[in-house]
Amino acid sequence: MRGDLIRSILLHTLAIIACILIVFPIAWLVISSFKTMYQIFQIPPPLIFEPTLDNYRRLFFGGQLMNAFFNSLIISAITVIVSLVLAIPASYSLSRLNNAVGRNIGFWILSVRMAPSFAVIVPYFIIMYHLKLIDTIWAVAVTYLVFAIPFSTWLLKITFEELPRELEESALVDGATKAAALMRIILPNAVPMIASVSILTFVLAWNEFLMAFILTSRDARTVPVLITALSGTHKLDWPIMAAITTISMIPAFIFITFVQRYLVKGLTMGSLKS
């Protein structure tokens, strides 16, 4: 009993420390967004201060924030929707190819995701330049899809492989086609993983910086690029950067809130087998 009590106290202590390490930077960022430059650099930091909305006023009335948010939302939505539309049939087909061809194709798809962004940014810039797509949301969305589709395909492939084949076979025996079995039987059982893939893809697209920084200049730049642009040349405007970073977290939090009940279940699918 004494050992169980010590173990329980230790686990709870570690959990509290982990929560503090996760929550503290976010709380510090949000609080800093309501400070002035002088208050941010005060040592020690003031625990009680007069908050200001000037940072948010500068963002919303500056004319740049809403355009960057609109671009990020559109690009992230295109990335999530198109990657799922293409990855679901691709991953389902690969999960049913139990041979060397299927395994090789699956590994090739995964290897595309392993390529670092800086290794392919120059070819993509040249392609988009000749297609006259520089500084458009389509240039950024297409490059994001190159990485998002392999990522989604690989995760969904593992999920489809773990689903009981008897569900699909019973539907085929009843006269359903492969497409009907996929839509009516397989996909409803894979909803948790599909939701998890949607969250991860959205977060990756929302936070990606390098591709958007190279392929955009002003009209199509995203929130991460705008944060860099607002940093200044000779000094960092920490209050306004804290404000825009705080606002940039809101869409991701809202999206995750609606589908969070699927996240843990989806990420653990396949970890246990009957």
Provide a descriptive summary of the structure in words.
There is one protein chain. This protein is mainly α and 274 residues long. It has one domain: MetI-like (MetI-like fold), CATH 1.10.3720. The protein contains 13 helices and no strands. It has helices at 2-32, 37-40, 54-60, 65-95, 100-114, 117-130, 137-162, 165-173, 178-189, 191-207, 210-215, 223-229, 238-267. Helix 1 (2-32) runs antiparallel to helix 13 (238-267) and helix 3 crosses helix 13 (238-267). The two termini are 33 Å apart.
Q: Short description, anyone?
A:
With 274 residues, this protein is mainly α. Helix content is 76%, strand content 0%.
What's the arrangement of secondary structure elements?
Layout (H helix, E strand, L loop, with lengths): L1 H31 L4 H4 L13 H7 L4 H31 L4 H15 L2 H14 L6 H26 L2 H9 L4 H12 L1 H17 L2 H6 L7 H7 L8 H30 L7
Cα separation of the termini: 33 Å
Point out poorly predicted stretches: 270-274
Helix content: over 70%
Radius of gyration based on Cα positions: 23 Å
Q: What's the total count of β strands?
A: 0
Please name the CATH architecture: Orthogonal Bundle
Please report the number of helical segments.
Answer: 13
Structural class: mainly alpha
Count of domains: 1
Shape estimate: globular
**SSE sequence, one letter per element:** HHHHHHHHHHHHH
In CATH terms, the superfamily is MetI-like
CATH topology: MetI-like fold
Mean pLDDT over the residues: 82
Most strands sheet:
none
